[in-house]
Amino acid sequence: MASEEGIRRLAAALREAERVTVVTGAGVSAASGIPTFRGPGGMWRSYRPEELATPEAFARDPNLVWEWYAWRRDLVARARPNRAHEVLAAWSRRFPRFTLVTQNVDGLHERAGTENVVRFHGSLWELACASRCAGAPPAWRHDGPFDELPPRCPACGDLARPGVVWFGEMIPPEALARARAALDCDVCIAVGTSAVVYPAAALVAEAAERGAWTAEINPEATPASAAVDLALACPAEQALAQVEGLLLGG
Prior knowledge:
This protein is of the alpha/beta class. The protein is 33% helix and 17% strand. The protein is elongated.
């Protein structure tokens, strides 16, 4: 559990804030039963995610990559937003200017009702044509099970790929621009992120350079822990619930 003093400090900073930006990683969804990439349970069969979430892996074995993504989609479909998602959704409606930048692709922030979400890495629930054919949209939504694996592009019949940003690919320019615009804020909080994947890992530091008060919520120390104004060593769902309790006067 986070220290009472730390919880009070974060709540006090938020009480004075109008512009709040939160950067989330896989740790936010851990309590929903979604394995983190780098924590315990982050393996699938004998593969690490870094071996599967790449263009090279898809070109080499699209069937294997799609088996992994189909497994993840099924896992997330049965999951529910946890208290961390719920608190952040409430903040998105409470603060006059709130932005949530997420590295997660599970869609649980949106299912919790969070407004103004910037998805750095796309969505498990979107597909794209692997050959980027002219007849298909850049991405399309597909929520249900697949008739075949790998799925196909409805426009050209070529393979479809997950609508996510793989290792080695660029963050969508629009998402990056929205994220950087949100760094002109009063409070910037990193929640459940390992702070090792760039450019997301640099966002909180950039917000600090622009004058924001910064905090980190993560069970373990990260490369960013020593640089923020407050580091809370605590699971996201616990710390956020405690902060919300103070904000609501509980």
